[in-house]
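Homework-ish question, so no full write-ups if that breaks the rules, but can someone show me the predicted structure for this set?
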Amino acid sequence: MSSKKHNSNSSNNININKPVPFVGKGYQPKTRRWMSYFVFFIIIAILELGTTTGVISSLTMPKPSDVLGTIIELFESGLLFKHLMPSTLRLVVGALIGISLGITIGTLIGLFSYIRSGLVPVIAAIFPIPKIALLPLFVIWFGIGEGSKYALIALGSFTPTVVATYGAVDNVDRTLIRMGQSFGLSWISIVYKIVLPGAMPGILSGLRISLAIAIILLVAAEMLGAEYGIGAYILEAGSLYDLERLFAGVTILSVLGIIVSVLITMIEQKILKWRI
Amino acid sequence: MNIQINNLSHFYDDSKVLNDINLEIMDGQILSIIGPSGCGKSTLLRLIGGLEKPSSGEITQIGSPPLDCLNAMTYIFQDFALLPWRTVEENISLVLEDHSLSSEVKRSVIDDVLDRTKLKDFSYALPKQLSGGMKQRVAIARALAVNPAVLLMDEPLSALDSQTRELLLEDFINLWHRKPFTAVYITHNLSEAVRLGHKIIVLSRRPGKIIETINIEKPIVDRKSIDKDLDQYQKYLWDIMHDEARATDAELLNV
Ligand SMILES: Nc1ncnc2c1ncn2[C@@H]1O[C@H](COP(=O)(O)OP(=O)(O)O)[C@@H](O)[C@H]1O
Ligand SMILES: [Mg+2]
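A: Not a homework solution, just the prediction itself:
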């Protein structure tokens, strides 16, 4: 006891060997895959338990097992694919148009000051418009069929792609461009071999947002003139207050979102191997 | 090919950076330029390399570059400027791709420079896998690949630790010895300047003006890292630079 007291105010005591406390914990992003499964599991388990015991009224939340049952039923009746096929097509075509236009325009904005000055205000004006509000306009322009749906999804994924792309082009290391110029590389070579690869990390992380917005707009696009489609299915269930089918549809959209996100991660791992 | 610089001055907006520079860069020789930081060394190099236009005065090429020269004025950058997504070999091939060379010629040029810079074993490595010294070797290899008329080097060793610097310096001297090239070598390190320079010029603080030119006759390959002859030059240069450096240090940065 007395020695302890002595230790605490004596700095040159040699009898105590204590490891240096580790203070460098945390702040390092690490993947802990099981954690996401765990969180999903807990949420679903709580809902299941709550709805079975009646703590959560079946009017406010459907039972997760019933939702799963609805999805299985959809699958078995073949309706799932009838809904999934047109939706996937709309998503792919719309997003492909929006993203490829977005990368092109974004690169041009990043490269040419005239185009930047002309277009950045326009993009800033389009970005905050809720694209859903423009659906009737697109129906007039492109018809009630697939055209208006592609246009809505394309426009929705276009603006975030443009913004991400020209930001990424701006951030390409200037000394690399200088290097290209000093070696007499042609303009085309500098764009294709230095600017675009250098902007790729920024463009890909922009794609995550663009594709999520595309999925959001899929539901909006199927509000008008769609017999089949996940969005149409959700909207119909919603108007009937059929929570089980509503949640079944939402779950399918979520899974779609996860698939897209995993795809982008795979692309990143493949083509951004060079990053530190 | 020589480079002649006549009455060159340069302004950024209204502030003068370089003041009446007259200078000749001799074929097959290394010219060292030293001066306090901010005196306009990098600016002078950019002007020589044609990345910027001088406000007044002219820079003339006398004679023509060697026949197989693909890029007359070629830089080696302080921060290496390697494309991180390309391997060592692909980084070198980058500067050959825009020229219509057959793939055999390209191959032999790449092999040759990899061999000269001792990078043979690293041709498939990505820049992130290399140390600073290795990266600068790649940059030197890339520069040699275009067989430049003049190599423009802006503090190429400043980002490296002193041991690596010494090793690279030796390699660089050997490279020059085996196949002499023309180079402008900018540094704020006096010992590097006297190790490499056939001619050394000293710039004053901003606006940079040439305040001294010395020639060192001793052959570059015979110079050692600890060398009495060089020490004399180094002391002499330090005396000149001392006052300039002090004055620069005392100035408020007007940024
Ligand atoms: N692009 C530029 N625009 C305006 N001022 C510049 C520019 N580049 C350099 N300067 C100024 O010119 C001076 C010389 O710069 P620099 O040539 O980089 O010096 P050094 O390489 O000798 O350290 C510095 O004061 C710097 O601030
Ligand atoms: Mg400099």
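Now go work out the reasoning yourself. Hint: The helical segments of chain B are 41-48, 88-97, 103-116, 132-145, 162-178, 190-196, 228-250.
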